[in-house]
Design a protein that fits this description.
This protein has one domain: L-arginine/glycine Amidinotransferase, Chain A (5-stranded Propeller), CATH 3.75.10.20. It is 31% helix and 19% strand. It has 14 helices and 15 strands. The strands form 5 sheets. It has a 3-stranded mixed sheet with strand order 2-1-15, with helices on one face. It has a 3-stranded mixed sheet with strand order 3-4-5. It has a 3-stranded mixed sheet with strand order 6-7-8, with helices on both faces. Helix 2 packs antiparallel against helix 13 and helix 13 runs antiparallel to helix 14. The longest helix has 17 residues. The chain binds N~2~-(3-carboxypropanoyl)-L-arginine.
Length: 416
């Protein structure tokens, strides 16, 4: 069985909008009330998928979830005109950020030798907490073969879980045994800490991970207060490399030591505060990058184009490339529509280590399928959504029909 890392990107849904729903997510708050461009947003996401496929990488996708969520509107006794923030929650396209879909433990790490997936309960935010049951249905379809995969229920709602955004894996190669690093926050700061330590520990137990190969570390409360609402805003790992801001963890040196104790080959690429401030790292999303192993074996960092426009971030990237480090390429991509809601290249993808032959092929992308999806998006996705449109019946009809058309061309109508 040929295990490899497959990135499953969320296709941006037709209701993508800026409602400012995420407290502690600076981009979401600062773009609140602006018009959004769902068609452009979805095409930007697809262009990123294309660009990664062109690097020779296997690419998968996950579907937008059904919106508006009439079930949630019924539970909250809402009609389109009442309580705009609650109505907007039921319309949110936030499932595009599939790094929050689930935590994934690849087969070589687990006791039963299967790949385990636990959907994230996302309970801290109403608009995200509605995702997991539909996400689970989708994961159970994509990863349906019980010989290779186990898809769990989310952990109980008392403990917030944000999935892969607060989880990193270090290994010699994706197909080998890894150690898993769970990063949690402590409540009490300016913004909510979304990942609870007990949620991380429950996921590790559900997945049958060896306690000697699990590391639990605390996010730096200053980073959360500065807008790093997920660990993947300030750190990302791939194979033996941890690429991190120097202020990502509560005890930075202690974190490196704990990881190194479980994985001695750890190579840290740390960006100091003097080179890129925590605020600039969060503004540009330098660390919300896809750190990828290319087929030739070298590593590339797929960063938001905002990084190229920041003198300090770009100077650091150029200096890094001129040096002798493990990251040999930096590839900027334009995902500005998602960025304006606090979602960079890494938020838009869920990493699953699996043999592609064991995954439902309907969730894997190739050139022909990309063209079909782009055609549906170009024809059916709203060009623009103004905040005042949220809740309107006419827009609801457009959004529902657009998603139906997408599921139709992908032969995934069973997930309607
Ligand atoms: O949960 N934004 C998302 C962004 C998620 C980014 N994911 C990772 N870092 N992995 C969030 O805050 C904004 C929605 C709004 O404001 O309408 C939003 O949900």
């Amino acid at each position: 069985m040929a295990l490899q890392e497959i990135n499953f990107d969320g296709i941006v849904g037709p209701s993508h909008n800026y409602a400012g729903l995420s407290l502690g997510n600076i981009a979401s708050a600062s773009h609140k009330g602006e018009p959004s461009y769902p068609r452009a947003a979805a095409l930007q996401g697809l262009a990123k998928m294309r660009s990664n496929m062109a690097l020779g990488l296997t690419q998968g996708f996950l579907l937008p979830l059904p919106r508006p969520n009439f079930g949630l509107m019924r539970e909250l006794v809402l009609d389109g005109a009442s309580e705009p923030a609650l109505v907007a929650a039921a319309w949110s396209a936030s499932s595009m950020w599939t790094a929050n879909a689930a935590t994934v433990s690849p087969a070589p790490d687990t006791a039963d030798g299967r790949c385990h997936l636990t959907p994230a309960n996302l309970v801290t935010m109403l608009h995200r907490g509605q995702e997991w049951r539909d996400t689970k249905r989708q994961l159970a379809t994509a990863f349906a073969d019980p010989r290779y995969f186990a898809v769990h229920d989310a952990v109980p709602a008392s403990f917030g879980d944000e999935g892969a955004a607060n989880h990193m894996r270090l290994c010699e190669s994706h197909s080998g045994t890894g150690i898993e690093v769970f990063v949690y926050g402590q409540q009490g700061g300016r913004f909510p800490a979304r990942q609870h330590q007990q949620a991380s520990r429950a996921v590790a137990r559900k997945h049958g991970l060896d306690p000697a190969r699990c590391v639990f570390i605390e996010q730096n409360p200053e980073a959360i207060a500065a807008g790093a609402f997920h660990n993947d805003v300030v750190a990302v790992a791939n194979e033996r490399v941890l690429f991190t801001h120097a202020r990502a963890f509560a005890d930075q040196q202690g974190a490196y030591q704990a990881i190194r104790a479980a994985f001695p080959a750890l190579e840290v690429v740390e960006v100091p505060e003097q080179a890129v401030s925590l605020e600039e790292a969060i503004r540009t999303y330098l660390f919300n990058a896809q750190l990828l192993t290319l087929p030739e074996g070298e590593m590339a960092l797929v960063v938001p184009s905002e990084c190229q426009e920041s003198p300090s971030v770009w100077a650091w990237c150029e200096a890094m490339l001129a040096g002798n480090g493990p990251i040999r390429k930096v590839i900027p991509v334009d995902v500005r529509q998602s960025m304006a809601n606090g979602g960079g290249p890494a938020c838009l993808r869920l990493r699953v280590v699996a043999d592609p032959a064991t995954v439902d092929p309907r969730f894997l992308l190739d050139e022909a399928k990309t063209q079909r999806v782009e055609a549906v998006v170009a024809e059916m996705w709203p060009e623009q959504i103004d905040p005042a449109d949220i809740g309107s019946e006419a827009l609801a009809k457009t959004v529902i029909e657009a998603r139906e058309a997408l599921l139709g061309v992908l032969a995934l109508d069973e997930l309607l």
